[in-house]
Write a structure and sequence with these properties.
Keywords: Kinase, Transferase. This is Uridine-cytidine kinase C. It is a single chain. This protein is α+β, with helices and mostly antiparallel strands and 954 residues long. Helices cover 31% and strands 24% of the residues. A 10-stranded antiparallel β-sheet has the order 12-13-8-17-16-15-9-10-11-14. Strands 32-33-28-37-36-35-29-30-31-34 form a 10-stranded antiparallel β-sheet. Strand 16 (347-354) and strand 17 form a beta hairpin.
């Protein structure tokens, strides 16, 4: 699956099932032999699931997995995300404590009980695992684990790869990074040359090198988790003082059990920090019973009445706190917080009493800004809202405690120290002949931070003055606000840090320039700019306008959505000018299915929405960016993953291509007309997030060809939020010649291109299939026709064609799709959702249990074709004819797109006849879909109306 693979079977411990050479009849070797040495969190999650699936097919009895690593590395998060897909039994080593020690000490773990539990499950016996209460600081009972329902058992803990357990584990996973690396990086930054990295490890994680790190080298999957804190899944809070804390009514939360917690919260200031140092640089430690949770600084965003915080808290050991104090950190603020909270769905309401302040506060929390605001209005809570943290309130009353004897600052500048000490991790590369003892292995991957450069203190925005005559806006006038401009950030940032900097830039612009603020986010298709724009809008509460709304109908008829000439620049300039002057303006709405403008929507800048974000491929083009206040460039995402996929495929057939060669072929418009403008951005973001592999974007799907009545579908959806639509789509599958397929057309060797509503969407990796579920990425990557033509020019061949109509019904939580495939007599129903249990419940309500299939439509279509009627490429001759027509059309459009940079549109008149002919053929192929769509829409509307009428009568 990946290059640079070595055999990682050591003499000590561990079960390795696939030590023999892979059979030549198989298209790929065993996954357990093919694991790369060093992978990201997303990639490791994907490989672990595939490894479990393969081993479960080949091994009798249960499959045991150990996930080990230091505190705060992310191993528990990984185990829980895998369990949500596989449905395995999780065994936490935290429950095997024998006392109230911090649990990182080997003597505090009851290995005998854990080994006995695993052996019982191996032998097919039910077993009782202990349960430990951290508040009561003692073992409170046990929990029965049934062997019959435990096909996969996953042990999660710091010592999960210890020698006592390795002989019982089938798959061993090591996770490093997370807060472990980030804390080391921050401390190294704070104290400079006073300690080496090894000294810091011995101080903060004293048991790590001696008792944890040696076991990690026995892992088969080694994960470096660079994810620390993110505003992508932020928590939105509204806080006010509680008038009557003892008799507060949790209206709307009645019937839900209240939970009471008591915390001690401490803030640690760096040893070299001055008294006026920002509190965002302090380390926060929260103690709950015998558990300690650490967050690196008081990161948050305040926007209007909302406090927005990232999920940035990680459990650490008690010794970590002691190590920080020993290194010179000072506890400058400490207070007790008593909390009584009630939770319903994604909302929680808490009463929090702070002993130092002697006050009680009401806090409403949620993951969606609009939902939190609406709930506050419904409950009748009008504030006054508080946006200051408890730390800020305490400091205002007592001031910042002074350091008694501040240590001397290091002579060497911090920046140079950082570059010198923090190095990128290097994977261990070993051969069985050279390595005889574990001590002979070098160990950099467990010591080094995950990135070559770490910035514990987030960069700050600065403003520069410019001559207003040098750069006028589209309005033709200039004012004082035009003389103040943001200074570009010198470096590029990842998506998480870039999101935070983007919001901070907007806030800085609002403070210095006032309303309105117009933002542009540009980058290639699939880079993540649309996702970033909507996450920014969710944080600051603003509007997002896609440049796709400004397509000109006559220009996009040939699927050229990445052509700058397809944008209506005059209307865009008018809209921006209206926004700039605070006038109400009408933004166009473009219907992608019809390829024409369908109307307008009104947009007006106000105090509640003083920011407008324009996102699109050409958002940073000189004709557009001169009208904007903030320029953001995003690269990476599927754009990079497609290049990697092409490089992998070409190398498999012995043809090596550089990234630049692939770029010039697959993304010709990007390299010539988009990339040059991105370098001028105020903020450059590299999106390393892999939405294809990530568990954060999983969509659970159940598929069945059992017939279901429309009335039954309507019953399981919320009528208040019900909506429906009809889509026609065509799937074509591209495979690189030379990839061995053993006479079978497999989805894993193909790139799928879906043509829907006049758009091309790309799928470069097949989804995960587990039990009845298909777990697929919740993403849709739009590409241009020139990208598809570029893949064909690189040697990819169209080998399959599927045509279908989809009738879609949804209520915001569940989506039900009824697909009618051409040449397949019965339709297929798909239930989709982000909640696995909700999807399963919907399937049971529709009585689909026992009828599910995880086969793709490609497999279904191929299985129906008799061998004698298949063409040489593996599809029906009639499908092959349709596919050939479509490929000819794509190639004609793709070749003209790549040459239009040097030729005018009128110069390609000889091709226009071919284009119109191809379009007419495609429309004839889809004519029967249009007729079905109209009839079905009338029928559906009548049924919805009749159903609502019946409900009102009841």
């Amino acid at each position: 699956m990946d290059d640079g693979v070595v055999q990682r079977v050591f003499e000590e411990g561990g079960r390795d099932y696939f030590q023999q050479q892979p059979s030549t009849s198989s298209s790929s070797s065993s996954i357990l032999q093919s694991l790369p040495l060093h992978v990201s969190f997303d990639h490791g999650y994907y490989l672990l699931i595939k490894s479990i699936q393969e081993l479960r097919e080949k091994k009798r009895g249960i499959v045991t997995v150990g996930v080990g690593g230091p505190s705060g590395s992310g191993k528990t998060s990984l185990a829980e995300k895998v369990a949500s897909v596989i449905g395995c039994t999780l065994v936490s080593m935290e429950n095997y404590r024998v006392g109230v020690d911090e649990g990182n000490d080997l003597d505090s773990i009851d290995f005998d009980a854990l080994v006995r539990n695993l052996e019982d499950l191996e032998e097919g016996k039910d077993t009782l695992i202990p349960m430990f209460d951290f508040q009561q600081k003692r073992r409170i009972g046990s929990k029965l684990i049934k062997s019959a329902s435990s096909s996969v058992v996953m042990v999660d803990g710091t010592y999960a790869l210890h020698a006592r357990l390795r002989s019982l584990l089938d798959i061993r996973v090591a996770v490093v990074g997370g807060v472990h690396f980030s804390l080391l990086s921050k401390v190294q930054y704070d104290i400079g040359d006073s300690c080496s990295l090894d000294s810091l490890i011995d101080s903060i994680f004293p048991l790590f090198r001696k008792h944890i790190e040696p076991d990690l080298h026995h892992a088969q999957i080694r994960i470096n988790n660079s994810f620390v804190s993110s505003f992508r899944e932020a928590i939105y809070k509204l806080k006010c003082r509680s008038e009557a804390p003892d008799a507060c009514s949790f209206s709307g939360f009645q019937g839900n059990e209240a939970q009471t917690d008591n915390f001690i919260e401490m803030y640690l200031r760096p040893p070299s920090a001055r008294e006026e140092a920002r509190i965002n640089d302090w380390i926060k430690v929260r103690q709950s019973g015998i558990q300690y949770y650490l967050s690196l600084g008081d990161q948050r965003i305040v926007d209007k009445n909302f406090i927005i915080r990232p999920k940035a808290e990680f459990e650490v050991g008690r010794m970590t706190l002691g190590g920080l104090l020993a290194l010179g950190y000072n506890v400058v603020v400490s207070y007790k917080r008593a909390s009584t909270s009630v939770t319903i769905g994604n909302l929680s309401l808490s009463l929090e009493t702070i002993d130092t302040l002697g006050e009680t506060f009401m806090v409403l929390r949620g993951t969606n800004r609009k939902t939190v605001g609406a709930e506050a209005l419904r409950m009748g809570i009008n504030g006054p809202w508080l946006t200051k943290s408890y730390l800020e309130m305490i400091l205002e009353r007592k001031g910042v405690p002074r350091l008694n004897t501040p240590p001397l600052l290091p002579n060497t500048p911090i920046a140079s120290n950082q570059e010198r000490v923090i190095a990128a991790p290097k994977p261990i590369r070993t051969t069985p002949n050279l390595v005889t003892r574990l001590e002979d292995l070098s160990q950099p991957w467990t010591r080094s931070p995950t990135k070559s450069k770490m910035e514990p203190v987030l960069a700050t925005w600065h403003f520069i003055s410019s001559d207003p005559r040098a750069d006028n806006t589209v309005t033709g006038s200039s004012s004082f606000r035009d003389t103040v401009k943001l200074a570009p950030m010198p470096d590029s940032y990842d998506l998480d840090r870039g999101l935070l900097l983007s919001v901070q830039a907007i806030q800085a612009l609002l403070e210095n320039k006032g309303l309105p603020i117009i933002v542009g986010i540009g980058g290639p298709s699939g880079s993540g700019k649309t996702s970033l724009a909507h996450k920014m809008a969710n944080i600051v509460g603003c509007e997002v306008v896609s440049l796709e709304s400004y397509f000109k109908s006559e220009q996009v008829k040939d699927f050229k959505y990445d052509d700058f000439s397809s944008l209506d620049l005059s209307l865009l300039s008018k809209n921006i000018g209206d926004i700039r002057h605070g006038r109400r303006t009408k933004v166009p709405i473009f219907d992608l299915e019809t390829g024409a403008r369908s109307g307008f929507k009104e947009l007006e800048v106000s105090e509640d929405c003083g920011v407008i974000i324009f996102e699109g491929v050409y958002a940073l083009h000189p004709e557009i960016r001169k009208s904007l206040d903030l320029w953001i460039a995003v690269v990476g995402g599927v754009h990079s993953h497609l290049i990697s996929r092409v490089q992998r495929d070409k190398s498999r057939v012995g043809c090596f291509m550089s990234q630049n060669e692939i770029m010039m072929t697959v993304f010709p418009m990007f390299q010539q007309h988009i990339e040059p403008h991105l370098v001028h951005a105020h903020l450059k973001i590299r999106n390393d997030f892999d939405p294809v592999l990530s568990p954060e974007s999983s969509l659970f799907v159940l598929k069945s060809n059992k017939q279901v009545a429309y009335q039954d579908i309507l019953k399981i959806l919320d009528p208040a939020k019900f909506c429906s639509s009809v889509q026609n789509f065509i799937d074509i599958y591209l495979r690189l010649p030379g990839i061995p397929a053993n006479g079978q057309l497999t989805e894993s060797d193909c790139i799928r291109v879906r043509i829907c509503e006049g758009r091309f969407a790309l799928l470069i990796r097949e989804p995960i299939r587990e039990g009845n579920f298909i777990i697929q990425p919740k993403v849709d990557f739009d590409i241009s026709i020139s990208t598809v033509a570029g893949l064909l020019n690189l040697g990819y061949q169209a080998v399959a064609y599927i045509e279908a109509s989809a009738f879609i019904y949804q209520d915001g939580k569940i989506l039900i799709e009824v697909d009618h495939l051409q040449d397949v007599p019965s339709p297929y129903l798909q239930i989709k959702g982000v909640n696995k249990e909700a999807v399963a419940a919907a399937g049971s309500t529709l009585k689909l249990d026992g009828s599910y299939t995880t086969k793709s439509y490609l497999q279904i279509v191929l299985e129906r074709l008799p061998a004698i009627e298949r063409s040489s490429s593996g599809i029906h001759t009639q499908q092959a004819a349709r596919l050939q027509e479509l490929i000819e059309f794509i190639q004609s459009q793709g070749s003209s797109s790549s040459s239009e940079s040097s030729q005018s549109r009128e110069a390609s008149s000889p091709i226009e006849g071919i284009i119109e002919d191809m379009q007419s053929r495609i429309k004839r192929l889809e004519r029967w879909h249009t007729i079905n769509t109209v009839l079905w829409t009338f029928l559906m509307s009548a049924l919805v109306g009749y159903s609502l009428y019946q409900r009102k009568r009841q």
